[in-house]
Write a structure and sequence with these properties.
Blueprint (H helix, E strand, L loop, with lengths): L2 E4 L2 E3 L4 E3 L1 E5 L2 E6 L8 E4 L4 E4 L1 E6 L4 E2 L2 E2 L4 H10 L2 E8 L7 H12 L6 E7 L5 H14 L3 E5 L10 H14 L2 E5 L3 H13 L6 H5 L3 H18 L2 E4 L5 H12 L3 E6 L1 H5 L26 H11 L4 E2 L32 H10 L6 H15 L17 E11 L18 E11 L2 E5 L2 E2 L14 H4 L11
Parallel strand pairs: 1-6, 2-7, 8-11, 11-12, 12-13, 13-14, 14-15, 15-16, 16-17
Antiparallel strand pairs: 1-4, 2-3, 4-5, 7-18, 9-10, 18-19, 19-20, 20-21
Helix pairs in contact: 4-7, 7-8
Amino acid sequence: MKKVIKNGTIVTATDTFHADVLIENGVISMIADNLDEQGAEVVDATGCYLFPGGVDPHTHFEMPFGGTVTKDDFETGTIAAAFGGTTTVIDFCLTDKGAPLKNAIDTWHAKSKEKSVIDYGFHLMIGEINDDVLNELPVVIDEEGITSFKVFMAYKNVLQADDETLFETLLAAKDLGALVMVHAENGDVIEYLTKQALAQGNTDPIYHALTRPAEIEGEATERAATFTGLAKSQLYVVHVSCADAARKIAEARNKGIEVWGETCPQYLVLDQSYLEKPDFEGAKYVWSPPLREKWNQDVLWNALKTGQLQTVGSDQCSFDFKGQKELGRGDFSKIPNGGPIVEDRVSILFSEGVLKGRISLNQFVDVTSTRAAKLFGLYPKKGTIAVGADADLVIFDPTVERTISAESHHMAVDYSAFEGMKVTGEPVSVLSRGEFVIRDKTFVGKPGAGQYLKRAKYGETKANLTKESLTL
C-alpha cells in the first residue's frame, strides 16, 4: 500500500524544507506540497523532522573476539539500530589467514540472512596479501558487491597486518575501485607498553588507555596516509579518537591525498576518566582506540564542523559487563574491547551536536547518513530523501527529552555506555524501504526483512564526492 507522509520538515545534507512524501513500492515516488492522499495510508509527521535513515558504516554483530562473542547479533543489533534511527549498517567480515575470503563472507551471510530487520552490507578484513587473495578480490567485488577492505594496524598476533600488506592492499584497491579502511594504532608499540605495564603490576582498566597513547594513533594514521599517497589510492580511517589523528588526516587531505575520517559518539561525549571508575566498572569503557583526555572532544567536534572528519559510525561491539568484560579482572589486556553504541548514535549527534550549535542540522544528516552512503557505494538509493531513493525514513521528534539507560535500551547487553545521559530528540517512527520497522516507538518489523546490499565501487561513486569535499 502506498503511503503519504505529511506535515513534516524534510532535512537532507543540503536542504531543509516543508513537503509531503509519497512512497510507492518501497521507493520515494514524489515530493511536493499537498499530495493526493486517495488510496494511501496517511502518516502525520506534524512537529517532526523527516530524516533519511541513518547509515552506520561501522558495526560488529556476533563477532568473535578475545575468547568470547559480541552479545548483540544481527537481530538484536539491527533492532536497536532501527530504534536509534539507523536503517542501514555495514558490518565487518573477519577473515582467517590461509583460508579463502569466501569462507568469511559465507559465514557472515549465515549470521545475518534470517536475522537483520534493516538493510545491511559487509566490509572485508584483509589480514594477508598473496596471489590467492589478489585473485579472489575481483570476484569479491563483482559477485558480492563488497567494495571496502579493512586492514588492522593493531592487535598484534591476532588481527594486525604488516605494512607490506597494507601497502599492497592500497595498490590493489586503486585498480579495483575499492576503499581501504584502517584501524590506525601502532600495534607493535602497544604490545611493548602492555607487557611493560603488566610486568609492573598495573592491571586496572585505566592502563588500557595508558598503553595506547594518542601519539601512536597519530603515528599510524600518518603512516597509512603516507602509503595511500604513494599508492595514489584511497583511505578511510575508522574511529578517530584524538586530535593527533584528526590533524594527520587534515594534513594529508591538504596535500590532495584521498583520506576520509570517521569518529564515533563515544569519543565526542566520554573521556578517559571513565576508565578510572572503581570496582572494575572502568572495564565497561574499554575499547580501541581508547577514550582520550576530555580536551580532544572539542577538536573532534570542530573537525566534523569544518569537514576534516566526514562521518560518525558507532563501532558497535557490545560485551556484557558480567561474564564478558569480567574476563579481564586482574589483567586489562584480557578485557574484550568494545561497547554498545549503535542505538544512541543518532540521538547523541542531534542533541550534543545540533542543539548545542556544534554542527548544523544539514551537517548532522551528512555525517550520520549521506556521506557514508556516498563513500560506500550506496548513494543515492540510501542516504537521502529524493525521488527514486529507497524510502528509508526517520520521523524524528526534536523536542522529546529522555535519559539513556540500560533499563530502556533495546540492545542485548547488560549496561549502557551512556547511562544517565540526558538527550533531547529521538526517533518516533522508522521506515525501511517504505515499511515501518519502528512505529510510535514500538518495534513492528520482522527479522529477516533486511536485504543484503551489493555496493558500487568507490570510483563509481566518486562523482558524488566533489572536489570541494576533498579540500579544507
